Fold this sequence. Notes:
Blueprint (H helix, E strand, L loop, with lengths): L10 E5 L7 E5 L2 E5 L4 H34 L6
Antiparallel strand pairs: 1-2, 2-3
Amino acid sequence: xxxxxxxxxxxxxxxxxxxxxxxxxxxxxxxxxxxxxxxxxxxxxxxxxxxxxxxxxxxxxxxxxxxxxxxxxxxxxx
Length: 78
């Protein structure tokens, strides 16, 4: 499997204390300022973006566990 080339480490989503609707999303050396025209969605979108590295890590773990389970299961005759 190829090595992950994205921003490593925990990402955070924080609303600007100065300007409502501006969110800083990022991790490591990366910061993204995020704004939306729909303020009902900005917090959810910022938190989803911030959780992307964790979701990807879980997807890789699930894939590895599934492959391991498939290799351990007895062969079936059909």
